[in-house]
Amino acid sequence: MATLILTAAGNALGGPIGGAIGSVLGQAIDAELFSPKARHGPRLGELAVQTSSYGSAIPKLFGTMRVAGTVIWATDLIERRATSSNGKGRAKTIDYSYVANFAVALSAREIMSVGRIWADGKLLRGAGGDFKVRTGFRLHPGDEEQAVDPLIAAAEGAGGAPACRGIAYAVFEEMELAEFGNRIPSLSFEIVADAGAVEVARIGAALSREIVAGDGSGSVVGYAASGDSVRGAIEELAALDGLSLVENDAGLVLGPPGEAEAAPVPASESGKRRLVRQSAASVPGEVTLAYYEPERDYQPGLQRAAIGPAGAGRNERRSVAAAMGAQAAKQRAERRLDAAWAERVTATISYGWRSADVRPGAVLTLAGEAGAWRVRRWTLGDMIVTLDLVRVAAGDALVDGAGAGRPVSEPDLPHGPTELRLHDLPLAELASGGRPVLAAMAAGSAPGWRRAELSMSSDSGASWQDIGPTAAPAVAGATIGMLPAGGSALFDLNGSVEVELLHEEMVLTGCGEDALAAGANLALIGEELVQFGSAEPTGPRTWRLSRLLRGRRGTEWAAGDHATGEGFVLIETAAVRAVELPAAAAAGATIRLLASGIGDVEPVLAEREASSESVRPPPPVHVRAETDGAGGIALSWVRRSRAGWVWHSGADTPLGEESERYVVTLSGAGFVRAAEVSVPAFVYDAAMRAEDGPGPVNAAIVQLGTFARSRPAIITFD
Fold first, then answer.
1. 402 C-beta neighbours (distance < 10 Å), count
2. Which of 138, 314, 602, 663 counts the most CB atoms within 10 A of its CB?
3. What is the pLDDT of residue 85?
4. For residues 595 and 603, is the Cβ–Cβ distance under 8 A?
5. What is the pTM of this model?
6. Are strands 70-74 and 93-107 parallel, antiparallel or unpaired?
7. What DSSP character marks residue 631?
8. Domains of the chain in sequence order
9. Residue 22 three-state SS
10. Which positions of the chain have pLDDT values less than 70?
């Protein structure tokens, strides 16, 4: 309303210039008083972070392993806000986003590196070290000389920040949480603690500071050791490998079965001997082993060993915090099943105390009994030593056919640098409250690109305002062939253009005439909006576009020859971010936009002079100059509207402006005259012609829109 009143008052007091000034002032007042109230997006009411509790176990890692970390430090979430336009007549939206600072403990011993990281099961950091969301990241490997993290020191103070020496941990700084429901996600890490496979004996030696001795033991890809003792930490691994774990005066000795260091127990020394064979029903018919499968991104795997048909007999389930291949896991399951059946046979022997040097875990032979026997228990009482023995299984059977299963992995796609396009386009649906907007479209040179954060400056870079993220990735590229000039009235069935897109995952599809009439396949080539009905792939990233409609939405002025290398971008609503210009930005101001994505070493700059295309009415069409029978010329034309582009058969297009007004400017040799009319017609009568003199006359018709003028429609007559 203020726009109408002040425009009229300006015209009355100062002519066209006064009207323009009144229009600008009125727009500012209307935007302030009558624009819809801003809508607020989801916002957290509580910014505190729940951290881990005291007493949470932190494993000691060996080899390569995927583990869930333990959050050991965090600040409150940090809230940020960004305001975005939702289109003409719609309320703005204030969106809230959150970032977090936190530290995650990984291992209770030093590690070498961290590979991939998963957040809520989705890939957060790729194998190449690239993050899929924006975050700072630092790794402290857990050596005994590591320094305090600077972020923790800044938050807690130099005296209250521990260095966590001997603990490997990672620090995430300002990690974006939008993709994780604005909370710290559940994280798991691929950690390399030692290079290559690691032997069980080496694990035991490291845990016991070289007290556990042994060689020739089995190996695993990775292991997360935990437990109250060294024996407790490696006992499960030793049992699965059939290893003996013998305790002597020097400590624990780990060795393969069958290596009986103690001499055979002679029958003459045996006071008692008793052999017991349990029934088959007491022995498992199936053993399943849960482990971590490297071929499936270290996700849990399961291997099975069975005697007889599946489901026969009871099942013994074993789980181990170790990473190993499917074949090795199958072998261990088979070995455990063989051991269970061998241990059906137990023996108890007693002999004099002078032979009491045998310890639990030792492997013996019994006179008169085949095979080897392991000491399970040792008892001394009344000067008699009693040993409880179990039979040791024979050598490993050949195992074949174990499979890791199909990996369920998220594609590890690099984010890549940002490609930013900034255009002033006649897309009235983007304009909010009549304020001009620019169209920002962004994509990446790699398929993994997701988005970038935008900052805007309207004062030659003196100040910058954060305006939030880009829209969905656009389909963009450049022309690799020429496109000749074409008219905007009919299909261009002869012309075609070849474009090269940024990467192979981008695709274009053709459409029928009904879809074209509804506005489908609208694209920008240079400064011209075109539509294409046919899209034919010509290479991995190249497409030939034909059945063209040229100069769409009033861009026929740009429908001239197009050279190789001009920009191409598909105009899709979801991929266009409306950048509303500040009220203080004058017409013709240069708007600068910086995009900063995960893969950008430096922010990407795009700039554009604001020419109000989003609020500019299109120029009139079908201009005619006919004699009026009285010596004058009758000019007529058909208006177009920025409010809609669908063809209305038998009816005028919607006005799209607060009033219908045109300026007709006539010029020729030595004269210029202008007139304002409110209908699509003007009579250049005989008196005017006589006053202006003979010769050709140029007529330029401009529609006066509510917020801007159209480009002129021009006709020449005598």
1. 18
2. 663
3. 56
4. yes
5. 0.73
6. antiparallel
7. S
8. 2-34 (no CATH), 60-192 (no CATH), 198-255 (no CATH), 267-391 (no CATH), 418-615 (no CATH), 621-717 (2.60.40.10)
9. helix
10. 1-56, 83-92, 213-217, 248, 256-271, 308-313, 354-356, 395-408, 432-434, 584-587, 646-651
